[in-house]
Amino acid sequence: MDEVIRKFDSIDGAEIDLKEWMHIISVESLGAMVLSWSPGMIKAGTDRATSYQSYLGWRRKSVFGLFPLIVKLEVNYKWVGRLFGIVWGVTYQTPKGFKPFFPREDLLTDLINLHKDKPEFTESYLRKMAITNFGAGHETLASTLIAIMAMLGTHPEVQATTTHEIRCQNAAKSRKPGSNISYADALELVYTRAVIREAMRLYPVISMSLPRVVPLHGSGLQLYGLRIPPGATVGCNPVSLHRNEDICGPDPDKFDPRRWLAGSDTPDNIRALERYSLSWGGGSRTCPGRHVAEMIVLKCVVRLLDRFEVRAAVPPPEDQGPTYFLAMLTGVRASFVPLEECKMKQR
C-alpha cells in the first residue's frame, strides 16, 4: 500500500479508472501474500488489460456451464485443459535447478509445508487452495474494492464519518496520519467495517443464482407450501436476497452503513443481515479465502481514506454493465485527492 499511496500522491488527484486501479491493488496484494511476487503493475500504472481478460474468463465459465459435456471432458481428460493452456499461452515450466532469490514467507509456502507435515492435505488440495486464493481472488477482491470506493466517493457524508473515525483512532494510539495500521487496530473501526459490509450488501461479487441440486434421495424439498422434486436445480440470487426489506429493513436500495451498527432496537436486524448474507457464500461453500480478503480490504480502505479524499462519478445503472456470473462495477471514474493535512506535510 505504501507504493500505491506514493503513486496516487504523484498523480495529485488526476482522474483514474477505478476498476483498473482496484484490480492493480488486488493483484499486487495477493501476489505479495500468496507468492512473494510483484507483477510491477503499480510502477507501470496499468494492469495491462488483465482485468478485462479475466472478466472474459468468467464469460467462458458461464457459457461452458450451459454445456456440461465440455466441462466433464475437461475434468476427465486432462489434455483438454492442457490444450486450452497451450493455445492461450498460460502454461509455464519451472527451469531445472531453479532457486528463489530470497527465503519465501508467504501463503503458498505455508500450504507446501502443511502438505509435507500432513500428507492427508494432498497435493490436489494444495493446488486448489493456491489457485483459489490467487487465481479466483484477484477479480472478486477487485470487485469488492470498486464497490466500496464508488459508494464512499458518491456519499461524502459517509466518507467524512469514516475518515473521522480513522483519524480519531490515529490520535488515540499516537499513530501518524498516513502510516501503516495493524489489522488488530483496523478491526476496532466499527463504522468503517459497517461501510464495507453495506457496500458488499448492495454490490455482491456474485450476481446470479448459486445453483444447488435437491437431494436425489428423499421426497424432495418442501418450501412455503411448494414441493420441489428431487434432482431439481435451485438457487438464490444474492442481489435479490440482500435487498429484501424483510431482512435489511426499509429503503433496501439505499447505501446506509447504519444498518450494521448495533443499537438498542437493532440486534435482531443485524443478526438477520449476517445470517442471510451471501457476500462470502454460505455454509460449506463459504469462500476459502474470506479471511485473507477481509484483511486486505479493510487495510486498503483504511490506508486510502487516511491519506486521500475519494471523489467518484455515480456508477452506471446496474443493468447496463456486463455480468458473467461475476458482477463488477465498470466505467466508474474516480480521483484520490491528497488531504490538505498530508499536502502540508509534503511541503
Automatic annotation (TrEMBL):
> What PROSITE patterns has UniProt attached to this entry?
CYTOCHROME_P450 (PS00086)
Tell me one GO biological process term. Answer: methylation
The answer to whether keyword Signal applies is: no
Q: Which domain of life is it from?
A: Eukaryota
Query: Where does the chain cross the membrane?
Result: none
List required co-factors.
heme
Question: What are the alphabetically sorted keywords of the record?
Answer: Heme, Iron, Metal-binding, Methyltransferase, Monooxygenase, Oxidoreductase, Transferase
Binding of heme occurs at 287
**Does the record bear Metal-binding in its keywords?**
yes
Recorded GO molecular functions are: heme binding; iron ion binding; methyltransferase activity; monooxygenase activity; oxidoreductase activity, acting on paired donors, with incorporation or reduction of molecular oxygen
The Swiss-Prot or TrEMBL record describes its family as follows: Belongs to the cytochrome P450 family.
The protein's matches in PANTHER family, at most eight in alphabetical order, are given as: CYTOCHROME P450 (PTHR24305), P450, PUTATIVE (EUROFUNG)-RELATED (PTHR24305:SF232)
Mind telling me what this protein is named?
Answer: Pisatin demethylase
Name of the gene this protein is made from: PDAT9_5
